[in-house]
């Protein structure tokens, strides 16, 4: 069994999860990645997607994160999410609202760079719909 480490997931609204975990898999902007105890320190940006958390007791928790930062340090892993909702609490209308916000951002983007960034976020949210169906 993998060694446990400290994990915290924080959103602007609240501390969503603070627990001893054995593994956390996150949706990074440069690709998905997993963190185990003793992982090398680093900071990564997150894209919209599902964070999969395996608690020390074996319970698996899936949480939707809408971007943010992951900070791996000797003290553990901290995720500062723009938004975070347990998948078990998500509803279809919430997902539709997230997609509508992203579509508005694409339509209102000023400049090609901003438009591309907004379009990428929209595409990631649409991909998330498929991930949620599989979760």
Automatic annotation (TrEMBL):
The record's InterPro entries line, in alphabetical order, gives:
ATP_synth_F1_dsu/esu, ATP_synth_F1_dsu/esu_N, ATPsynth_dsu/esu_N
Protein name in UniProt:
ATP synthase epsilon chain
Q: What is the lineage of its organism?
A: Bacteria, Pseudomonadati, Pseudomonadota, Alphaproteobacteria, Hyphomicrobiales
SUPFAM superfamilies assigned to the protein according to its UniProt record, in alphabetical order: Epsilon subunit of F1F0-ATP synthase N-terminal domain
Q: Which gene is the coding source of this polypeptide chain?
A: atpC
> What species does this protein belong to?
Methylobrevis albus
Signal peptide residue numbers = none
User: In this protein, which residues make up the domain named ATP synthase F1 complex delta/epsilon subunit N-terminal?
Assistant: 5-84
Q: Does the keyword Ion transport apply?
A: yes
Q: Which family does this protein fall into?
A: Belongs to the ATPase epsilon chain family.
Q: Where in the cell is it found?
A: Cell membrane; Endomembrane system
Query: What is the top-level taxon of the source organism?
Result: Bacteria
Q: What does this protein do?
A: Produces ATP from ADP in the presence of a proton gradient across the membrane.
Its quaternary organisation is:
F-type ATPases have 2 components, CF(1) - the catalytic core - and CF(0) - the membrane proton channel. CF(1) has five subunits: alpha(3), beta(3), gamma(1), delta(1), epsilon(1). CF(0) has three main subunits: a, b and c.
């Amino acid at each position: 069994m993998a060694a446990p480490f400290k994990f915290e997931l924080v959103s602007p609204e609240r501390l969503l999860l603070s627990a001893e975990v054995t593994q956390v898999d996150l949706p990074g902007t440069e690709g998905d990645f997993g963190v185990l105890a003793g992982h090398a320190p680093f900071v990564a940006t997150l894209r919209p997607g599902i964070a999969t958390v395996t608690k020390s007791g074996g319970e698996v928790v899936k949480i939707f994160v809408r971007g943010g930062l992951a900070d791996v340090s000797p003290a553990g892993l901290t995720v500062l999410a723009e938004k975070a909702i347990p998948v078990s609490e998500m509803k279809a209308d919430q997902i539709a609202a997230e997609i509508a916000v992203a579509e508005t951002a694409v339509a209102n983007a000023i400049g090609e760079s901003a438009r591309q960034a907004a379009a990428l976020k929209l595409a990631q949210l649409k991909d998330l719909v498929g991930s949620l169906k599989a979760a």
